[in-house]
Every structure is written in C-alpha cells, then in structure tokens.
Design a protein that fits this description.
- The radius of gyration is 31 Å and the shape is globular.
- A two-stranded antiparallel ribbon has the order 1-2.
- It is built from 6 helices and 2 strands.
- It is 60% helix and 3% strand.
- Helix 2 packs antiparallel against helix 5 and helix 4 packs antiparallel against helix 5.
Length: 238
C-alpha cells in the first residue's frame, strides 16, 4: 500500500527525533571504539581512574588502553641519592675551575673548546643538583667550601673520585701554553673517570628517578668526553 505524504512526513520526523536523541545520549555518556554507548554510571572506586587513550591510525578513532603498570610516579629518595648529589656538586665545581683556567692559559684551540663545552654542561648540572637538594631541605654544598666537607668517604661510604689535589690545582694554575694543555687534559681525564666511577658505585643504590636520569646523562657525556680529551692529549705528548 502506498504511503500517504502526511504519513511519510510523520515517520521522517520520528526518525529525526530518534537520531537527535541518540546524539544527545552519545555526547553525555561517551562512546567506545565499536560505536556502542558507554554505561551512564560507573563504580565509585573507578571515579578517580585515569583514562589512557592511544591514538588510532589515520581515519580511526582513539582507543582506551590500560595504564602501563611500569609507570613510576613515586618521588622517593634515599641516602645514596643525597650522597651522590652532595658529592657531585663540589666535583663539578672543580671541573668548572679547571675550565676557567683554560681561557687564558691554554695554547691549543682544541683544549679551549673542550673546556668551554665542559663549563657549559656542568654549570647547569650544578644548578639542577642544588635545586634537588634544596627542594628536600637538605644541605647544598657551596663553592667556597672545602670539597672534603661533603666527601661521604669519611663516614664509611663511597667517596669522591678523580678530584685533583690542591698541589695539582696550583700546578695547573701556574702553567701556561703547551704545559698547561697537557696538565689540563690529563687532569680532566682522571676527573671524568672519577665521576663515571661514582655514578657506577653510588647511583645503583639510590631510588630517585631524577637522580638516576641525571647521573646516566653525566656518565654518557663524560665517557664520550674522555675519548675526545685523550685524542687531543695523544697529539700533544712530547
């Protein structure tokens, strides 16, 4: 039987109303990847759950996935973390002092460039370490202090390694030209090796993620620098 115009009009209006209702429900409750409407109520214990969305391929909707179980949000730290940060600040400070000497005393341009890179890398790292300690109301070593004040070897722990003695620093400051270049390169190689050893010996016992990440970056950067320092030193040997 043929539909009358007014009957078709009523059915069209009814269908449009259903479609509008469906859109309203979807916008209030959300939808899953399959296009089905989600439940309008959730268990109370899931009210604070974090939804993790994984972007879909071009033309596909994002999908919800479980939060990775290996995500660490704990800000815990222990004595090993503190020990590393407190000792590495004066360790870096000596490297900065050595680098500043190179500006007027070095003869080889390669030595000056290496000193500039070391200063540019370790200066900001000192600020990061100082902030980390200050945030936790822990003592922050000062540049004017004797480095041994914060050497935890005095308390039976792993200590600073690779530090130049006062006599070595005086010898470096009193030298010029090619002699300075050789003393600087040899001294900085040992200084870097000491820092890498401290990372290897102290950091594994720590629990703070930020400390570990910073230490790993230090070890990688200074290990690469040791090779560059050695290459230049090999060309300057008498």
């Amino acid at each position: 039987m043929t539909d009358l115009p007014h009957a078709r009009s009523r059915r069209a209006a009814f269908a449009a109303a259903l479609a509008a209702l469906g859109l309203l429900t979807s916008s209030c409750t959300g939808s899953t990847d399959s296009g089905q409407h989600a439940e309008t109520s959730e268990p109370a214990e899931d009210a604070g759950a974090v939804r993790v969305l994984q972007p879909g391929k071009p033309g596909e909707a994002a999908r919800e996935v479980e939060e990775p179980s290996d995500v660490v949000v704990d800000d815990s730290w222990n004595h090993a973390d503190v020990m590393f940060m407190q000792m590495m600040i004066p360790h870096h400070a000596q490297a900065l002092e050595m680098s500043r000497l190179a500006e007027r005393r070095a003869e080889d341009r390669r030595v000056q460039v290496l000193a500039e890179r070391i200063h540019a890398a370790q200066g900001p790292e000192i600020r990061v370490m100082s902030s980390w300690l200050a945030e936790r109301d822990l003592e922050v070593p000062r540049a004017a202090e004797d480095a041994s004040t914060h050497d935890h070897a005095q308390h039976g722990h792993a200590g600073m390694q690779g530090m130049l003695t006062k006599a070595q620093m005086h010898r470096l400051a009193d030298s010029r030209g090619r002699r300075f270049d050789r003393l600087f390169l040899a001294g900085m190689i040992e200084h870097h090796r000491g820092a890498v050893a401290m990372v290897d010996e102290i950091v594994p016992d720590g629990t703070d993620i930020r400390v570990r990440e910073l230490a790993d970056d230090m070890a990688a950067g200074q290990t690469a620098e040791i090779a560059r320092l050695q290459d230049v030193l090999d060309t300057l040997q008498p």
